[in-house]
Amino acid sequence: MGSPGRGAGLYFSRASGRRRGALPWLSMWRVPGLLCLRVARRSKLSGPWNRPAAFMSTLLINQPQYAWLKELGLREENDGVYNGSWGGRGEVITTYCPANNEPIARVRQASMADYEETVKKAREAWRIWADIPAPKRGEVVRQIGDALREKIQVLGSLVSLEMGKILVEGVGEVQEYVDICDYAVGLSRMIGGPILPSERPGHVLVEQWNPVGLVGVITAFNFPVAVYGWNNAIAMICGNACLWKGAPTTSLISVAVTKIIAKVLEDNELPGAICSLTCGGADIGTAMAKDERVNLLSFTGSTQVGKQVALMVQERFGRSLLELGGNNAIIAFEDADLSLVVPSALFAAVGTAGQRCTTARRLFLQESIHDEVVNRLKKAYAQIRVGNPWDSNVLYGPLHTKQAVSMFLGAVEEAKKEGGTVVYGGKVMDRPGNYVEPTIVTGLDHSAPIAHTETFAPILYVFKFKNEDEVFVWNNEVKQGLSSSIFTKDLGRIFRWLGPKGSDCGIVNVNIPTSGAEIGGAFGGEKHTGGGRESGSDAWKQYMRRSTCTINYSKDLPLAQGIKFQ
Predict the structure, then answer these.
(1) Would you state the pLDDT for residue 11?
(2) pTM score over 0.70
């Protein structure tokens, strides 16, 4: 859901120290939050400073302190294609750790021949899977959840190592997949449509739901486990097979997750191709978008690339589920509880180093509280504990790639040109890896172009507002419509915010951050966010096709609307 920035291409491709005096509510950072995504890098990045070349050439997986990677079935070179058996005849890529830019391991991606073979096997596997009763499919999904539970710490550590998010968020992301598996198990006994009364005697209308067939899932780097989990668990209990292409820069995570799922399918004597994997770049993503055998394509990524995906899928009259960019706002009124506003803005703006689709990028403060909130935020930002994301006390890790660092710097400079003042941060940190200072910018006009541009980095633009009417308009004036939140005690204002003239977003919060959604509700947004919905509520309907069935159990043949045809 957010954009990694320009140059992403068809995203389908392309040591810690704890500060004293930390504010007590910073512990809220340990609450795992939800989702979002973006692009990938293919080039080898430079290693950390003052390391001998011979040492830098060693893959992390071969170093003793990273031996735990082998608990996930990973090795120095890994097959990136799974369709019941492992293989891969495409390009070999290396994935890197964002905290130090050292190489972790290699993955052999899918060739077009691998893709063709995998789609055929997935379609064949679907014929078996669709015949299994939904509650029995739910039992298999339950086992997948249990298998993920057993590996939650080690898989969460891999998310931290390869994606760069802090460890509690990495583990929390795996927990999210576990939670959606639990949710899907119950849902497997509830999916279905109503029986409707007919106007004709001796007739009944039945709404029948069936699986669409093969669901393609393209995910991004920032939630490399959870977003696939949202799609996979629900699609499976609905009776679909899945074909996954993750972000190239998190290919090891894609491989590790698929190995866990494959073992469960094997133990149940089911075709492994029910949950297929094709690691790859733009060629694989484009093939999925254009392939009529892919009945639904779920894409999470930038708005720019999502538009290309939508056009390719629509050209063949296929179905797409889009989770794209977000330019999310927090609005704090003068009656707000500032003990909620400050930690919420901090968590929403700086969590995952600003790389969530639900990251708060705009903060609107009523004039009377503007200066106090900005000062409190600056003090809070100064106490953020920075370090290796896998260290236990760290709250803030690196950006995912060096390209993201460059985009961060470009956005800061553009904000200055447009009249903004950097009151905190704005620089690259003097340490190995892709670390930047979390940044606060004040003084911009609400309509400033940079404030209307989603930059996947920890930059928070702060604005003053006078009244409710103008700030509701400002919230909605950006092209995206993912997440939004107000802080107020005014009950009437709350319901106006939730109503037709309030927020136009898919996620509309009150007195909580913009990020950290729960799996029980439908997740997604409006406008340039794409309109798709994943996870809970009735999002399962997107993975199925609906038929209205009229059954005549009488001996007569009356026509609807009283028509006589004699």
Answers:
(1) 32
(2) yes
